[in-house]
Specification:
2 domains; alpha/beta; 24 strands; UDP-n-acetylglucosamine1-carboxyvinyl-transferase, Chain; four-stranded mixed beta sheet; 14 helices; 417 residues; elongated
């Protein structure tokens, strides 16, 4: 099994080009199932979850051709509506094929999803909402078996809780439903805006009515298009924090800075110097890091996917900080590993008290989930000596060429078998 060796102590300096967004690519790939045409997608990241989703699409009958800079998806003969456990077990986004399969065929059998063990991630919000489009479903032996005997019918749907996945699934499903659907209390993450842009480009009729309300008029014909996916804001945030924690000087390129305004503002308050340009952010880390109280929240709040990384930075702050995790109930699994490196972090429920003035010591470490694994890299980059990070298959699910990108800006890091 592969692992990473990290030799810490170097300041990161140089430029990093951010890859396409994993979290935008996955729902867009699922949405291609709506179409019977050819669709070209560009700027998809080369990460594990994307490979899994492409394999899932192929198992459903999509023909996929991968060129260097683009992926061509041909659904002219796509006719299957069964998503097996073997393909969905490693990522929660597998449930996103439920909406398009129901919209297209009126029937779907989709395995309940897997992914990181950071919370229960119930799909009940998806199922309750989709039932209002005329879908009847049952859960049998780990599968959602759903059918719409009279086809999908538009309806007014209010989400009981803001859910990124449920919002995406319902937008996709309602795009081919008969009549008009109004979705309220929607998630508004940039990746959802990217999905809506993609769907409108292939011929759907989707409009934001207010901040969290979407109107969808069902259509019956879709077009062939070419579409470029947005940048990965979590990857961008990770490298911004990497510069801050190593007192480095990095230019983060191929981004839209206003999308990560919350993260930029927090890093400024913590003490980093940040220069914002059109498609680039330069960050210069400061030796003096200020403590903070941070709460994770749905967009435009601070993202749960950067909570582990910011925790590493706050371990080096001048005083104690508090992090409150409001999205997932089991997202402090990196704490035990960081404490093994010398951190002093106490957790109580969804709050973590992070003691400051910590110098991380090198250690052998175990990654528990995607974002936890990258937080261990950040901590290792600041320690003097060799750290070894095991179970990095988590990391490969969401970060493209991370050791290559870090090597280019001065990190001593290598992958070993």
């Amino acid at each position: 099994m592969q692992k990473l060796e990290v030799f810490g102590g170097n300041k990161l300096k140089g430029q990093i080009k951010i890859s396409g967004s994993k979290n935008a690519s996955l729902p867009i790939l699922a949405a291609t199932l709506l179409s019977n045409n050819r669709i070209i997608l560009k700027n998809l990241p080369k990460v594990g979850d994307i490979e899994t989703m492409l394999t899932l699409l192929q198992s459903l009958g999509s023909k996929i051709k991968i060129n260097k800079e683009q992926i061509i998806i041909d659904n002219t003969k796509q006719q299957k509506n069964f998503a097996s456990y073997n393909l969905v077990k490693t990522m929660r986004a597998g449930i996103l094929v439920l909406g398009p399969l129901l919209a297209k065929f009126g029937f779907a059998k989709v395995s309940l999803p897997g992914g990181c063990a950071i919370g229960t991630r119930p799909v009940d919000i998806h199922l309750k909402a989709i039932s209002k489009l005329g879908v009847k479903y049952k859960i049998h032996q780990g599968y959602v078996i759903a059918n719409a005997p009279k086809g999908l019918k538009g309806n007014n749907i209010h989400f009981s809780k803001i859910s990124v996945g449920a919002t995406e699934n319902l937008i996709i499903a309602a795009s081919l439903a008969e009549g008009t659907t109004i979705l309220s209390n929607c998630a508004i993450e940039p990746e959802i805006k990217d999905l809506v842009n993609f769907l409108n480009k292939i011929g759907c009729k989707i409009k934001w009515k207010s901040k969290r309300t979407i109107k969808i008029i069902g259509v019956s014909k879709l077009k062939e298009i070419s579409y470029s996916v947005m940048f990965d804001r979590i990857e961008a945030g990770t490298y911004l924090i990497a510069a801050a924690v190593t007192e480095g000087n990095l230019k983060i390129q191929n981004i839209i800075p206003k999308i990560i305004k919350t993260e930029i503002d927090i890093l400024k308050k913590i003490g980093s110097k940040i220069i914002v340009k059109k498609n680039e952010v330069q960050i210069i880390g400061n030796k003096k890091i200020k403590s903070m109280k941070i709460k994770t929240a749905p967009y435009p709040g601070f993202p749960t996917d950067l909570q582990a990384q910011i925790m590493v930075l706050l371990c080096r702050a001048n005083k104690s900080s508090i992090i409150q995790e409001n999205i997932f109930e089991n997202r402090f699994m990196h704490v035990a590993e960081l404490n093994r490196m010398g951190a002093k972090i106490l957790t109580n429920g969804n709050k973590a008290l992070v003691k400051g003035n910590i110098n991380f010591a090198p250690a052998e470490l175990m990654a528990t989930d995607l974002r936890a694994s990258v937080s261990l890299i950040l901590a290792a980059l600041t320690s003097k000596g060799k750290s070894v990070i095991n179970r990095i298959y988590h990391l490969d699910r969401g970060y493209e060429n991370i050791e290559k990108k870090l090597k280019k800006v001065g990190a001593k890091i290598r992958r070993v078998n």
